[in-house]
Amino acid sequence: MTARRLLTLAAAGAAATTLVFTGCGGSSEPAASTADTAAAASTAAADTTATTDTTSTTSGTVKQVDCMGAEEACSVKIPIGGGVSNQAYEVALTGTNLGEPTITPDTATDKGAYDLSDGTFTTGGSIYSFTLNSVESLPEGAYITLDFATKK
Question: Which of 42, 55, 133, 135 is the most exposed place for a label (fewest CB within 10 A)?
Answer without folding.
Answer: 55
